[in-house]
Specification:
The structure holds 2 protein chains of 2 kinds. By secondary structure, chain A is α+β, with helices and mostly antiparallel strands. In chain A, about 50% of the residues lie in helices and about 15% in strands. Helix content of chain B is about 45%, strand content about 15%. Classes of the chains: A alpha+beta, B alpha+beta. Chain A: This is Acyl-CoA dehydrogenase.
Amino acid sequence: MRELFDNTIRAILADQLSPEQVIAAEGGEFSRALWNSLEENGVPLALVAEDHGGVAASLTDVCGLIITCGEFSAPLPIVETMLANYLLARKGLPPLNGVVSFAAGDELVVNAGGVSGSVANVPWGRHADLILAPAGQSLVVLATGSASRCEEMTNTAGEARDTLFFDGATPEQTIVLDGLASELLLLTGALIRSAQTTGAIMRVLTLAKDYANERVQFGKPIGRFQAVQHQMALLAEQAAMAKASCEVAFARSAMEFHEDSITAAKICAADAAGVAASVSHGVHGAIGFTHEYTLHISTRRLWSWRSEFGSATYWCRRLGDKVCKSGAEQFWPGVVEGGFPSPV
Amino acid sequence: MFIEQFRYHPIPAEAEALRAEVRAFVAEHTAHMSLRQRADSWMGFDADFSRKLGERGWLGMALPRRYGGAEASAFSRYVVIEELLAAGAPVSAHWFSDRQSGLQILHHGSEAQREQFLPAICRGECYFCIGMSEPGSGSDLASIKSKAEKNDQGWLLNGQKVWTTNAHRSHYMIALVRSGESESRHGDMSQFIVDLTLPGITVRPIKDLTGSEHFNEVFFDNVQLPPEALLGKEGEGWSQVTGELAMERSGPERFLSCLILMQAMIAEIGANADALQQREVGRLTARLMTLRQMSLAVTHLLDQGENPSVAASCVKDLGAVFEQELPEIAQLLCDVEPTQSGGSDLAQVMAYLTQQAPSFSLRGGTREILRGIIARGLGLR
């Protein structure tokens, strides 16, 4: 199934998403035609059971699909929608209709008067029909139409990251979880951003490799200079590390989100993002610094995606604290098992 | 592209089932060792320990049963060696024969060679070293000059190898030497199994910067090799060595050399790490977990009979950077003065591994060579 997903999404994005459209989306346009096409191909429901209209794919099956969305800088919350429907499906609930997004900041209050407070950093919030947001142990589904206000913000790549305000809104659904809803949404967001970051890294690797083979200086392609080759090797190594860590995180999360594998993926992808942006710009020289050339479409996303849903520093500290609390004797067993006990 | 090769390949259950037994055995046999001794990692030599591993059936595990092996998957061996390395067990005696010489003989050797060497390798009694570098040929391996000339008794070997780890305590060397005239730079090399007790061979240990003796120079002065010393096909030495290098570059020994220091550092930090300690320990842990999975992905490819040389180079270079950073980060996080003798376990381990670290990006291929291989794998050049 994985190969089918990979090929389908690549065909759609290669055919229907131009760099011009990505730039237009930065100006606030929503790619409705592309969204419709993704919907017709069942992407929002990929992880949903068949009796709810989906194809019951596993997270492992969609790892490549999400990486590809990152590679093409898909300017809409298709991955957020797919994962939101997955979270509902895991609770036995039907998928949502329309454009769905989610955020992890726990700042809503639910009481008899409805849902009040704000939800910050909602990806594509202004374009979404519905959002998932945490309120303590409750996961609430809210119609964006019920928000009292939308404060528009954008990340370094001009992607909408809005704050929605609610004042006694009636939630579409309220799902009570065993733990904090913010934790579930944070892990979900970290997982998908790791994969999208990996995709953007793959794109800048390809651009830099092609450019190094084409650009001639001192009578030969610059890719023949050892200094350039070794920079490219560093970029490729980081890409491999990001890719490998994502594959592990998705595969291990097939049943339950696997916290420490997702953590490792977010850290490896975030660290790789910085190297990838730096090396790819270095190899391109001045042309890569122009708005006309497409390298910045990916590098500006790398500079934001690496920090969304928890920066490398956040996840490193969280993991490091667990490792130190579980002690030296537990270190190697933890590495082998791929996880460390949470501090009590 | 090789990056696509890094998929998730967990250790199969039947291999994982070995772990508890191996871990208990290793704990028992390393209990008497100091932390500093355990930091020797795969440089610690103990023939008795190697024979005990052989008795357990944990050497040459991938080899066929008829030669004393277990016909186990590469993952079974992986479980055994990562547990040995993680505990700092003394594995050096059998290391090269178990990792590559046995497989090299299985794949390229004659039936007689297999019968002669493989059972002894599996028993932990027959140790090999790898003769590649020469005084004028380090990274540029294809420029080697040692030469085996055909004569009526077999081959007459002359020349010199250098930086040969364990030559002073091994029984045999698998040597890459020139064996004929060829237009191609890679075309006239062959591999030979050289009995290190033959007349005309001189082995001289070279002290490393810590004063330890691990590597050697080896001189061949009219050494008469029998015809059956040839390993594989005449003239195929280069391609045989290239295959061998993938086995050599992707294993857990490429990122576990400083594991003892990581553990000592965590013990020193204790449960209440500060922000910097949390961040650095977390980052190292995430990278180690990922490197291990990358190494397992390459193990899977090797097990499938592929030659993932670019992916293996990736693991080795990333692993060396990781291993070399660890002593630096330990120094950053722990306010401890490294000591060669006296002082705490941590101080001694830190001193020892700080001094060993430069070798991590030399042995098994320098970072410049590895990055060149990766660049070529990308399609540059």
